[in-house]
Amino acid sequence: MQTDLRGRDLITTQEWTREEIDTLLDVAWDLKRKRALREAHPLLRDKVLGMLFFFTSTRTRASFEAGMAQLGGHAMFIDSETTQISHGDTAKEIGEIIGRYTDGIAIRQCDWKFGNQYIREVATASRVPVLNMQCDVYHPFQILADLMTIQEKFGRDLRGKTINVSYAYASSYQKPLSVPQSLILLMARYGMNVRLTAPKEFGLMPEIVEQARENARRSGGTFEQLDDFDAGFKDADIVYPKSWGCWMTTEDKQESAVIGKQYTDWITDARRMKMAKDTAIYMHCLPADRNIEVTDEVIDGPQSVVYDEAENRLHVQKAAMALTMC
Ligand code: CP
């Protein structure tokens, strides 16, 4: 167990060792148990988290705020649109100044080719740890919650389990690549058989795919890429079909909408779920485009673990804050 995590940023799980991630998960289980027993755990009394949002959120905002309150501290919501950030406060100024008011800074900045760079600029200027609440490249807390959920369902040793990380059609908007990218990176470190299924226009960043392949090689897992939606479900233990944008093909919203229209049949339904193992679980980070990405029957059905995933956001985030902001 690695215990010296005070002051550490968490921008991508790639920058934390496997042992450090396992420590975070151990603490998350302990805090989940404490909450179930109504046992107080004010590990961050009088501490403040500054939460800076450039993008909308339901789960991330609510779980970080609730988590800080349960740890005895306070979470301060800062909206980029209603502060002077919209008039030019720079990333360096935010890191310097908010870092002097708080004990940690959490940021959601998903703009393509900018978000991750922004978060890193804040982190460079900040004297307190910086936590990535989602950028254009990574969504580490979602994927840590997903890993916790998978281990709850299948046990801690995930070697040999097959996860299908798949594109699914959605009409709402061009979503970031951060969820599938973080998923293939982290699950490949746990010896799983990672399957990435997507149409040719919906590729992920090549350097991330290469890192996932290398993670699988090191962990004794496998990594494969498919372009057939049905084939992705075959004999999978875990299916995680969700929409993302075709950012590697075009940044134009109208063009991406036209491309996406070719794949309206990439919807998870009961027929597809039957192709996976009988014991398979259905995962989604939410929000989902119901009856477009996934049918109500599946997302509300017995194989769905979406609410456990959402709950586990709270526990992994509290663990990360308790370990880095203490
Ligand atoms: N899954 C997730 O990050 O949800 P929000 O966008 O609602 O925060």
Task: Please give a quick description of this structure.
With 326 residues, this protein is α/β, with parallel strands linked by helices.
Summary tags:
326 residues; alpha/beta; Rossmann fold; 12 helices; 9 strands; binds phosphoric acid mono(formamide)ester
Overall radius of gyration: 19 Å
SS field, number of helical segments: 12
CATH superfamily of the largest domain: Aspartate/ornithine carbamoyltransferase
Low-confidence stretches are none
The total strand number stands at: 9
The percent of residues in helical segments reads 40-55%
Major sheet description: 5 strands, parallel
The CATH class of the largest domain, by name, is Alpha Beta
User: Per CATH, what is the topology of the largest domain?
Assistant: Rossmann fold
Count of folded domains = 2
Cofactors and ligands: phosphoric acid mono(formamide)ester
Mean pLDDT, as a whole number? 98
